[in-house]
Every structure is written in C-alpha cells, then in structure tokens.
Amino acid sequence: MKIETGGRPPAAVEISPEGVLAAAMPAAGGTPVYAFEPLPEGFVVPGIEETNLRAPDALANAIRAALDQVSPRIRTVTLIVPDTLVRVFMLDFDTLPAKTADVLPMMRFRLRKMVPFDVEQAAVSYQILSQTKDQTKVLAAIIPGPVLAEYEAAVRAAGYEPGAVLPSSLAAIETVDTMEAVLAAVLSSRGITTLIANGQELLLYRNLELPLDAAERAREIERTVAVATAYYEDRLGARPEKIYYAGNRDAAEFASWLGETELLVQELTPRPESGAMTSLGDSSIAGVTGALAGARA
Predict the structure, then answer these.
(1) pLDDT tens digits, residue range 182-221?
(2) Could you tell me the pLDDT band of residue 223, with boundaries at 50, 70 and 90?
(3) Over the stretch 17-68, which tens digit does the pLDDT of each residue have?
(4) Does the predicted TM-score (pTM) go above 0.85?
(5) At what angle do helices 56-70 and 145-157 cross, to 10 degrees?
C-alpha cells in the first residue's frame, strides 16, 4: 500500500458499497473524465474482520466497465478503498533510518498495540510530514493484508494493475490546494471521517462507523463535526469558517445534519459539467480527483 502524493498513475478507481467510480486523465494536463458502475446492495461490505467482497466476479466486471469507459493510457491505476478498511495514525519518532526497509519494522512495532489485527500480515505505508534534527512526524496507514488482497485481486481480474492504494478521505483531501488550515469531512454509507490539515501537517484524522438508524446517524454526524470543530479551535486558536465536504449525500443535506452551526459547507469537488461518461449516481468524485492530483504525466 502506498500513500505517497507524487508519481501516481493517470487513472484511478474507487470502490464503495454503492459501486465503482473511475477517472482518468486523457492527456497530460487534460481534464479528467469519469464513469460510474453501480453495484447491488451487499456486494461490497467494507470491514477489517470479514470477507469484504461477496461477489468478486461482479465487482471485477464493474471495475472493467468503468475503467474501459474512461480509456486510461496505461493499465496501472490508483486504487481507492473505503476508509473503514484502513487505520491512519500520526506518529512521532526521534529519528528514522534512511532506508524504507529499516523503517517498516519500526512502524509495525509501534502499530502492534494500536490495531485489532495482525500487523505482520498487514500492508503498512508511511509518509514523512515534517522533520527536524530532534523529531520526525509521520503519517502511517495500515490495512489487514487479506482485506487489501481482496480488492487488489478484483482490480487484477478486471485486467488492470493496482499501483498506489489510498483510503478515500486521504485521496479526497488532496483536492484542496491551499497552505491554510482546512477542516474537512468525508461521509460514506458506513461512516464519517473528519480531518484537519494545516499546510503539509495533518492535525486530525478520525474515522467513525455510523449507526444505521437515520436519526441516530444524524446526531452522530453532528457530534463528530462539533468535536472536530472544537479541536480545530483548540489547536489553531480560531474557529473554522467552513468545512470542506465530500460524500454520498449532497452538501445541503449534510449541512442540515450539523444543527446550529455557523460553518459553511463547501464541496471538496463539485460535480463536473462535462467529462462524465455515465451517470455518476450519488458518488462523490473527490477521491478519484484527488488521486489524479498526484498523477504523473
């Protein structure tokens, strides 16, 4: 699994319970094109402790159909997976070895008591956020090996090769092109992720699974955003004026769940006026668009 920001393929595919969203850059520096293939309910059930893909052949067909419609220039794609599969942490180290092969055992040792699955069989990746002579801050991501293998196998069965692998929210946040502090929320049918980024530093990453009951779900979303807003104010000394949003519901509906708040809800990536090869359903394009932001020419 790779979470680095540069040199990714010029095509991306995001898998969610609702379906498969693909995007590709038809030419270097060009405008992305998008295609969506829906999936029946229950075909993809994201989680860390069980089989996720209940119909892998159907998923492979949907991946192939979506990607073929956007005509990627190469067969390698960035794979975007649901946030509920991935555990993300900010870790501090006094120093790190120069070689990646020496860093990963240190990461696994630190993560061993932080995740409820076998770290030795897990895929681990990291990105250095900041570094001084006395401290190195690292963004680390870990996903159970068997779970990642399921998703990668589906991409390969579709005739493509998974390159970088990103959780949905980390891909989506890359659509924000600013060095100012940003509060963001990424909503899925399974959960919500809140993030605070300040330049190159990630101050908060919090993913929560949401209840199925609609009223309880709305209350949990309100609470989660309120906690992130308070954390933003505590860390940065000012209240955020807006929250960037991506999700499987439109921004107005999300705003209605936030209760009494002065936060302005702004979409991370509005729907394209052109370049959609199919109906995009309710899927946000922020993840695949962010993945392409780091694509190589």
Answers:
(1) 999 999 999 999 999 998 789 999 999 999 999 999 999 9
(2) very high
(3) 999 999 999 876 678 999 999 999 999 999 998 899 999 999 999 999 999 9
(4) yes
(5) 60
* DSSP secondary structure of the chain: ----SSSB-SEEEEEETTEEEEEE-SSTT---EEEEEE--TTSB---SSS--BS-HHHHHHHHHHHHHHH--SSSEEEEEE-GGG-EEEEEEES---SSHHHHHHHHHHHHTTTSSS-SSSSEEEEEEEEE-SS-EEEEEEEE-HHHHHHHHHHHHHTT-EEEEEEEHHHHHHTT---SSEEEEEEE-SSEEEEEEEETTEEEEEEEEE--SSHHHHHHHHHHHHHHHHHHHHHHHSS--SEEEEEESS-HHHHHHTT-S--PEEEESSPPPSS-BSS--TT--SHHHHHHHHTB--
